[in-house]
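lol forgot to send this yesterday, sorry. struct tokens for the thing we talked abt
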């Protein structure tokens, strides 16, 4: 039996690579042509790592490549997407070898690596073992229609199949998204033309893939102005909830968001869904609206886990010039056996030096660590600059994350 060859997938290997992917992920097959279109995009929007032995494909591990907001700025991010190993290769260590190869390949495309995973999923321990750290666990709201006495009535909403309606009103919808206070971290970069397969977070941009019912919902006022909208995956699988991929309204007008959500519920019910799933939490501007939906249930499951491929680049994006404005600089370090890491943010005259575990260091890099609480709990050590700790927290504390949508099947 020959040696295993692990490398970035090549154009001529995409066919068998996708065949294995579809054998593993039977609920969400994709075509080799679609995958190749992202692979050949400029800049590249998808890549993958494959493992071959004697010409046989043993792994199909894809990574969506997207700009992702991590604080004051955005970084190019690789999202682990449909990570699979053939049945005969499971338990042999191929998955970890593929991940090690990815850490060598992906820095050419991205500064950050992320995955959406739940502690209840079998793959959870694989990701944690390979260095992924929990960055945010949004609240999952499940709105089951039978628990709210049927599907709520909707009014005054315009609905279009796919995202053509969004594209036709893109400028105004982008303005609404930005006006809702969407500068928080944990979201994909929104810019003109972002909602395409190669730039947005939606793998599917029409109803031709997997029979998915994608809808754009727009709510207008009496003068024709758009007050709110929602992007909805009305049906993922028969008898399961659909998903609100994104919802936004003009600032301070939550009633318009309610109309969009109720219209989304009607579309999901017509498509055969038993309800809707919405990702929210304290960082989301519409969290109070989500909580008020009749019969909605809140839980925590799927979370954003990540690790930096270029820690300094991620930290620079996360903190921006917040520390420079405060006249501060922070150096954060960790040591874990032979492994060490260090980043420095800010170039002010007063320096704060911190030491912590690797997991907390990763969270610090992404601006997700409450440093003051960490110091109080002895999880973070102040090496020098203790007097400026509170000033640091005021100038560049942890930022809220409001991830929404779905990045893979």
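and heres what i got for the seq, position by position
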């Amino acid at each position: 039996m020959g040696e295993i060859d692990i490398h970035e997938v090549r154009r001529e290997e995409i066919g068998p690579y996708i065949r294995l992917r579809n054998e593993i992920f039977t609920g969400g097959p994709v075509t080799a042509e679609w995958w190749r279109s992202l692979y050949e995009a400029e800049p590249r929007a998808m890549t993958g790592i494959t493992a071959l032995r004697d010409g046989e494909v043993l792994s199909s591990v894809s990574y969506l490549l997207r700009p992702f907001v991590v604080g004051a700025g955005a970084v190019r991010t690789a999202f682990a997407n449909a990570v699979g190993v053939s049945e005969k290769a499971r338990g042999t260590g191929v998955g970890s070898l593929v991940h090690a190869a990815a850490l060598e390949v992906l820095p050419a495309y991205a500064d950050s690596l992320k995955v959406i995973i739940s502690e209840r999923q079998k793959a959870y321990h694989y990701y944690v073992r390979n260095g992924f750290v929990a960055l945010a666990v949004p609240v999952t709201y499940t709105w089951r229609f039978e628990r709210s006495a049927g599907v709520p009535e909707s009014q005054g909403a315009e609905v279009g199949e796919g995202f053509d309606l969004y594209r036709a009103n893109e400028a105004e919808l982008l303005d609404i998204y930005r006006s809702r206070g969407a500068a928080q971290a944990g979201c994909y970069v929104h810019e003109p033309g972002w909602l395409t397969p190669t730039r947005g977070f939606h793998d599917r941009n029409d109803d031709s893939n997997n029979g998915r019912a994608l809808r754009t919902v727009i709510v207008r006022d009496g003068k024709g102005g758009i007050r709110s909208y929602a992007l909805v995956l009305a049906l993922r699988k028969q008898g399961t909830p659909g998903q609100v991929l994104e919802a936004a309204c003009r600032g301070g007008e939550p009633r318009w968001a309610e109309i969009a959500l109720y219209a989304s519920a009607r579309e999901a019910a017509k498509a055969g869904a038993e309800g809707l799933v919405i990702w929210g939490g304290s960082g989301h501007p519409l969290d109070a609206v989500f909580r008020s939906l009749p019969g909605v249930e809140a839980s925590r499951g799927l979370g954003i886990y990540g690790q930096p491929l270029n820690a300094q680049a991620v930290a620079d994006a996360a903190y921006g010039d917040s520390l420079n404005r405060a006249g501060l600089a922070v150096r954060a370090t960790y040591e874990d056996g032979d492994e060490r890491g260090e980043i420095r943010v800010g170039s002010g005259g007063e320096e704060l030096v911190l030491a912590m575990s690797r997991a907390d260091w990763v969270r610090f890099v992404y601006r997700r660590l409450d440093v003051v609480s960490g110091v109080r709990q002895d999880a973070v050590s102040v090496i020098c600059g203790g007097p400026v700790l509170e000033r640091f927290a005021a100038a560049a504390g942890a930022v809220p994350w409001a991830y929404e949508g779905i990045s893979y099947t």
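The longest helix spans residues 254-270. anyway ping me if u want another try
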